[in-house]
Amino acid sequence: MPHVIRYFDKADESYAGKLELADIPLNKLQELFHTPPEDPMYECFPIHETQAKFFYEFAKIKLDIESYDYFLEYDA
Q1: What is the CATH number of the domain that holds 67?
Q2: Residue 63, class by beta-carbon neighbours within 10 Å (0-12 exposed, 13-18 middle, 19+ buried)?
Q3: Backbone angles phi, psi at 70, to 5 degrees
Q4: Which domain holds residue 48?
């Protein structure tokens, strides 16, 4: 499933970019965001410090939580 991380500048809420998550299995994302196994995760999920640590440890994606708001989204 094509999940992505979209992020927005906290200073002015402008769109800042998108990160592809091709290598992270759906079941890992479901565990991280505490969703049931049958949930395809089509909704938008805000990413906080705990989730940011996971993305760095699992995929070496470093998120700047101080400067940007991040959201996990399904990119159809």
Answers
A1: 3.10.50.20
A2: buried
A3: -115, 145
A4: 3-74
∠ CA 43-49-54, nearest 5°, is 75
* Assessment of whether the complete model's pTM goes beyond 0.85: yes
Q: What is the pLDDT of residues 33-64, one digit of tens each?
A: 999 999 999 999 999 999 999 999 999 999 99
Q: What number of other Cβ atoms are within 10 A of residue 57's Cβ?
A: 9
Percent of the chain with pLDDT over 70: 99
Closest CA to 42 of 5, 7, 75: 75
Three-state helix/strand/coil letters over 5-69: EEEEECCCCCEEEEEECCCCCHHHHHHHCCCCCCCCCCCCEEECHHHHHHHHHHHCCCCCCCCEE
